[in-house]
Write a structure and sequence with these properties.
about 170 residues; 4-stranded parallel β-sheet; about 40% helix
C-alpha cells in the first residue's frame, strides 16, 4: 500500500508549466501534475488513479462557467476525497497580470515575450526553458498568485455547490 500523495490537476499546458516551476522552486508541495478539467471531464475517468487520503488540488479557470452540470457532478463525486480548488480569476494570463503588476494582458504579453495575443503568449510560455528568469524579470509575486477567489466563492454558493477554495498547497 502506498502512502499519501499530492496531485495537482491543471486545465491547460500553461498551468502545467507554472506548476512544474513552482514545484521545482519549492513554492508548492512536491506532487504529481496531471491534466484534468473539472468543467469538461468526468471525474470517474481518473478516480481509479487516486486514493481517498491523497491531497488533490484542481487549478480551475473561471472565465467560462457554462458547463455547471458537469462541474457540479464532479464536485459531488469528489466529496469523499481530500480536495481543494485553486481558483484562477478568469485564467492564468489574468493571474500572471495580477501577480506581476501588469495593467492588462496586452502589457503582460509584450513584457514577457514581445507578442500581441494569448495564443502566442501561451506557446512561448510553455516553451520557456528560463521561466524562472522570465517571471523574476517581471516582478512575479507568488503571494499574489491565486489569491482572488471571492467572486467564485459567491458563484459556488449561488449554484448550491459546496467546495473548499482555501487551499494549503504553499510550502
Amino acid at each position: 500500500m502506498r502512502g499519501k500523495q499530492v496531485f495537482y490537476f491543471y486545465e491547460g499546458e500553461t498551468e502545467k508549466q507554472l506548476l512544474e516551476f513552482l514545484k521545482n522552486t519549492k513554492k508548492i508541495s512536491s506532487g504529481k501534475v496531471k491534466k484534468f478539467n473539472l468543467w469538461k471531464g468526468r471525474f470517474r475517468k481518473i478516480e481509479t488513479t487516486i486514493n481517498k487520503d491523497d491531497k488533490l488540488f484542481f487549478v480551475i479557470d473561471t472565465d467560462d462557467v457554462t458547463n455547471t452540470d458537469c462541474f457540479s457532478e464532479n464536485i459531488k463525486l469528489l466529496k469523499p476525497y481530500n480536495f481543494c480548488l485553486i481558483v484562477q480569476h478568469k485564467n492564468l494570463e489574468d493571474e500572471l497580470c495580477f501577480s506581476c503588476n501588469k495593467v492588462n494582458n496586452k502589457k503582460l504579453f509584450n513584457d514577457f515575450y514581445k507578442v500581441q495575443n494569448a495564443d502566442k503568449f501561451k506557446s512561448k510560455f510553455c516553451g520557456d526553458k528560463g521561466i524562472d528568469s522570465t517571471l523574476s524579470n517581471n516582478d512575479f509575486n507568488f503571494k499574489k498568485l491565486w489569491s482572488r477567489s471571492g467572486d467564485f466563492s459567491d458563484w459556488l454558493k449561488e449554484n448550491g455547490i459546496s467546495a473548499s477554495i482555501e487551499c494549503n498547497y504553499k510550502v
